[in-house]
Design brief:
There is one protein chain. The protein has 540 residues and is of the alpha/beta class. The protein is built from 20 helices and 18 strands. Helix 4 packs parallel to helix 7. The chain is globular, with a radius of gyration of 24 Å. The relative contact order is 0.19. Bound molecules: zinc ion. Zinc ion binds next to helix 4.
């Protein structure tokens, strides 16, 4: 009897152990939906019936955070697969100013090598040079040299930051076609084929999309301040050859996923002994958000199509019999145009006063102080602002004091922090919902790249004054509409829960590492493995 019980207990334990450690998946698919705020995911969750509904049936963390202050594309993508905040990845913004470089253009693009001759921050050589830490794919290839690390995106910086320093294939849209910065890698046969198919589609006009009733309820044209045209009732009709309209439409994500699926087949991803990682950053939601705002018919159509397109992509993986897992998140959130927000009752929603731009503020201050030159470098009304290093130490100090006081006196400014104040702030250890403003800025701070001071605009101030160039809405702030993003984990046969506990995008990488049995040295990344996902976290 006793022996029987022991055997039964042993069998139970064995089956429990087996249930706890299924073999690791052979392919990690990591999807970043650019500018997919948690506000948008929450609003549309009930409308999703395709890929996004399927992924949400795994574990849905409703309160994921890109917890740092400068919520832009490059820093956001740098957190997802490194497990580190921008203070460690070194990717503090899409661009920064480095007055020590030899090049005439002192603005540095996050995903460039500025040492390349005849380059500028606008015409750059794509490179992962500035990313200071390895990605999950880099670490997988160190441990398992036959693992493949592949990235596809509508934006070069997204593909670079998700794949890192040792990518097998990296393809991104350059405005006309998918291209790569990798010179040694063989070009897969599918790439020219997909590019040719996109060129053929682009040469034809595209009829307007037919909205579902839910999207029709959002169709209402709203006038935009600052010279832009009204938005809110667009349906993505495109004239032949209009590549800018292709990019700011669901077509861009469809093309990105088509190339991703073709690479899975040609490279036989997920069908060998060692795991592969495929990073896909879908850029259209961001371009649609910038061009039309987030609460019109345009975004509704975009998210409807995104849901369907991701579903189609997952169906391809299913049909190939690949054992894969998916993580989905965003590089930052976003916010609607202030004109429509005011109609919805957000009384303080406003566009920024153009006088806050450093190009306007700098000359005003230097004239007052009797200092030569523009004084402040950069072209921004918020975030990192730099003092011209060609000035004497005494003048730099006078200008810094005057600039901090001048910004603090502006009614649209919430706070100003000097680099010394930020550097003296310890890295936050509490949940991202509890971080003070300076703690958020601390995780966006990297000495030598960050500014001399950091300006935080008040909540609901949109830092676009002039809308005549086509962008009417944006992100980038310290506020939760820009910080809060969905984080989903999905694996075949796994049913998780909806979780409201705040988590961080830096937690994604250690969770995926645990899922594939990739050991991480204790303390080597900022993030922590998340329980309640398909991963079994190692004991901390
Ligand atoms: Zn972005």
């Amino acid at each position: 009897m006793r022996k029987f019980l022991l055997a039964a207990a042993a069998a139970l334990l064995a089956s429990h152990a087996a249930a706890q450690s299924p073999p690791p998946p052979k392919l990690l698919v990591v999807i970043s939906v650019d500018q997919f705020s948690a506000n948008l995911f929450d609003e549309y969750r009930a409308q999703f019936t395709g890929g996004l509904a399927e992924l949400a049936s795994g574990t849905w963390f409703r309160n994921g955070f890109q917890s740092h202050a400068l919520t832009e594309t490059c820093p956001g993508h740098s957190t997802i697969l490194t497990g580190d905040h921008p203070a460690r990845t070194g990717i503090i913004g899409n661009t920064w100013i480095d007055q020590s470089i030899a090049r005439e253009d002192k603005t540095v693009y996050c995903a460039e090598d500025e040492r390349a001759p005849d380059t500028s921050s606008a015409h750059y050589k794509v490179s992962p040079e500035h990313l200071l830490v390895p990605t999950l794919g880099d670490l997988m290839k160190s441990r398992w040299p036959s693992s493949r690390n592949v990235a596809v995106s509508g934006k070069d910086r997204a593909a670079v930051m998700m794949s890192g320093h040792n990518a097998d294939q990296r393809w991104y849209w350059d405005g006309k076609q998918f291209t790569t910065d990798l010179t040694g890698a063989p070009v897969p046969q599918v790439v020219p084929k997909v590019n040719a198919a996109i060129a053929a589609a682009l040469a034809q006009p595209r009829p307007a999309l037919e909205p579902l009733p839910y999207c029709q309820t959002k169709a209402r044209a709203v006038p935009v301040e600052g010279g832009g045209t009204p938005v809110g009732a667009g349906r993505f009709a495109r004239s032949a050859g209009d590549a800018a309209a292709l990019r700011a439409s669901p077509e861009m994500d469809g093309d990105t996923l088509a190339l991703s699926a073709a690479l899975v087949d040609e490279m036989q991803l997920g069908r060998r002994a060692t795991p592969d990682v495929l990073s896909v950053s879908l850029s259209a939601t961001d371009y649609v958000g910038h061009t039309y705002g987030t609460e019109g018919e345009e975004m509704c159509l975009q998210l409807t199509e995104l849901d369907r397109e991701i579903g189609d992509f997952l169906s391809v993986l299913d049909s190939r019999g690949i054992d894969y897992a998916v993580a989905l998140t965003a590089d930052h959130g976003g916010k609607d145009i202030p004109e429509r927000e005011r109609l919805a009752g957000v009384a303080d929603a406003a566009r920024v006063d153009a006088a806050l731009n450093s190009r306007v503020m700098g000359p005003k201050l230097t004239a007052r102080l009797g200092i030569q030159g523009p004084g402040l470098l950069g072209d921004s009304s918020f975030g990192d602002i730099y003092i011209d290093r060609r000035l004497s130490a005494a003048d730099r100090k006078r200008l810094l004091d005057a600039a901090v006081a001048a910004y603090r006196a502006q009614p649209q400014v919430e706070a100003v922090f000097t680099a010394a104040e930020i550097a003296a702030t310890p890295k936050p250890t509490s949940p991202p919902t509890e971080w003070s403003l300076i703690e958020r800025v601390r995780e966006s701070y990297y000495p030598g790249r960050s500014g001399d001071f950091f300006v935080v605009l008040k909540k609901d101030v949109t830092p676009i004054a002039d809308t005549s160039h086509g962008f009417v809405a944006t992100h980038g702030s310290v506020w939760d509409y820009d910080r809060r993003v969905p984080i989903l984990f999905w694996r075949q046969g796994f049913r998780g829960a909806t979780v409201t506990t705040p988590v961080d995008t830096v937690d994604i990488m250690p969770t995926l590492a645990a899922l594939i049995g990739l050991p991480l040295a204790s303390g080597s990344v900022d993030g922590h493995c998340l329980e309640g996902t398909p991963a079994f976290c190692p004991d901390r």
